[in-house]
UniProtKB/TrEMBL annotation:
Pfam families: Glyco_hydro_130 (PF04041). This is Glycosidase. Belongs to the glycosyl hydrolase 130 family. The keyword Transferase applies.
Amino acid sequence: MISGDDYLIFRPDDVDLARSPLRGSIDEPTYVLGAFNPGFTRLPNGNLLLMVRVAEALREPIDGDCARAIRWTPEGYVLDRHPLSGIHMDDPRQFALKDRNPRLLGLTSLSWLLPVELSRDARSVVKVHYDKAIAPSASFLEYGVEDARISLVGGSWWMTVCGVSAERHCTAMYRSLNGLDYDLLGVVLDHQNKDMILFEGKVGGKFMALTRPLGEVYFAYPEDSEWLGGPSINIAQSPDGLHWKPLDTPGIRARKGTTSTQRIGGGSQPVLTRDGWMLIYHGVEKRDAVGIYRSFWALLDKDDPSKILRLEDQAPLLEANPALTADIAHQMYLPTPVVFTTGLADAGDHYIVAGGEADLACRITHLPKDRFE
């Protein structure tokens, strides 16, 4: 890592909530729980774009004997009330309904996406595009639009998001012709298929994407296997970017003897190098309720991405850096270290890597390309 090239570029206090999409519907005081996990791409003018997830939370999620959740409706945002006697609430971000199987959650915040334009070298903010913010606009997004990932494929910017609703926890797709104005194309993957991100380029004329399906049950590998069961990175292909078929072969899985024992998932968009498709992903070590998130990297075959050429899952590429959040430590709410890579951009002799730090702010790291050799 280049010394001194690791910094926060956008923080919760940088969001002007007077320009939030929730204004006009919600009179209750709110605050920015986090401005983090940004989609990341380069715009036609050469500048860089962070598509920042803004988690806007109620200052007072408890009102009398009820907890409240923010929900989008076609008529505006509303507050739903859930009796405290019927919920468990040990996390400021959410609560769980008692005695429900499967587990049912409510959120005390709602996430929307804020486009933040950066300079070409990602060292300064050029403009915050409040007029182009992306907020819930369909029932499958009623509880929020989360964790954008952006890939430039065939002259269009394709953006996946996690859509949260009582109907489903899905992946939705947006598309842009200029990197700034996005149209919602609808649901592309169904329940809890998270961390979907398109490769920046086609393989054999087809779109390719990383996915990470979640479930209630996983099955164990044999004791003598090198692999661990649980959430893993799969790969899917599509003729048009909208209709996806998973590949039959497994993708990137957690291995025994590493710190990524709880789960792994996609991070940056896979980019084509002379050696193959390079991507940064996250691995989670079990600790407390959230776990420790670190970033690792892998190299996939350029003609058949199901073939893993290299898997660097021992020494982390990136780890949480408490020094970055020292001056906003009073705003932190997670008990364990988290760095969550969400995109990268080519900058000549190095990559500019974007992600979330502590689920709180947007982090930029400059990594020399020889770090991936």
